[in-house]
């Protein structure tokens, strides 16, 4: 029996921008190996698999190489697909059981808001491989539960960065968040994300990274609501609202492809 799979661009209102995620709503669970094979076939940063359990959906995320514990853009894309394809009424909150606990999504005025756990970065000395891989002065370094985080001296330094991917892949963990204060009016900070160790050389827009970026820049700037721009070639906008041990991540999404899996 054919299974529908939908691709949506997340954290953007424009097709062919933001971060594409494949979303597959299943009638019953499938094996880990099958889901990993589908994610490898889709070859996007993440493919999301959902199975309904009453009023909640089990949600799992796979890169082409591994399953991950938390993913923002594929969760946003999943909520978008559930509403757009009639799995949920548009006024109903989307609820997801995940490796990172219960996550929710709501929709208002064309924006989708995700309720995620905050992961404030903890200052840490960068390992030599990270310093060498970045190749430019690091202003501040930290760790999150998933990633390294480094702050560079300027917006220009972040945008022009060309890190050594082979060195980054040796660091362990999921990846590296690179950030600075934004020089562009309307944005509080910018960032990029590199995850060669999990099969994603550069992620277009990383919602989960903003679980760390929000607390960092909220403290630096004295703000509870911020707007971040992820300066990948595709680019994307993430609104962040700080809520104690949680963060609210808001973005838009647009469907670009519907297809059928025949395997």
Structural commentary:
Helix content is 20%, strand content 43%. The protein has 263 residues and is of the alpha+beta class. It folds into two domains: 3-116 and 250-261, Roll (Diaminopimelate Epimerase, Chain A, domain 1), CATH 3.10.310.10; 122-243, Diaminopimelate Epimerase, Chain A, domain 1, CATH 3.10.310.10. The chain has an 18-stranded mixed beta sheet that branches.
Which short descriptors sum up this protein?
single chain, 263 residues, alpha+beta, Diaminopimelate Epimerase, Chain A, domain 1, 2 domains, 18-stranded mixed β-sheet, globular
Mind telling me the C-alpha Rg? Answer: 18 Å
Classified in CATH, the superfamily of the largest domain is Diaminopimelate Epimerase, Chain A, domain 1
> What's the order of the H and E elements?
EEHEEEHEEEEHEEHHEEEHEEEE
| Uncertain stretches of 5 or more adjacent residues | none
CATH class of the largest domain: Alpha Beta
Major pleated sheet: 18 strands, mixed
Overall, the morphology is: globular
How many strands appear in the DSSP assignment? 18
CATH architecture of the largest domain: Roll
> How many domains make up the coordinates?
2
Helicity range of the residues? Answer: 10-25%
CATH topology of the largest domain: Diaminopimelate Epimerase, Chain A, domain 1
Structural class, judged by helices and strands? alpha+beta
Distance between the termini: 8 Å
Oligomer: single chain
What share of the residues does DSSP label as strand, in percent? 35-45%
How much is the average pLDDT? 97
Q: What's the total helix number?
A: 6
Which helices and strands occur, and which strands form pairs?
Elements: E1 3-10, E2 19-26, H1 32-42, E3 46-53, E4 56-62, E5 67-68, H2 73-84, E6 94-98, E7 101-108, E8 111-117, E9 122-123, H3 128-134, E10 138-143, E11 147-152, H4 155-160, H5 165-168, E12 175-181, E13 189-195, E14 200-203, H6 210-221, E15 225-230, E16 236-243, E17 246-251, E18 253-261
Parallel strand pairs: 2-3, 4-6, 11-12, 13-15
Antiparallel strand pairs: 1-2, 1-18, 3-4, 4-5, 6-7, 7-8, 8-17, 9-10, 10-11, 12-13, 13-14, 15-16, 16-17
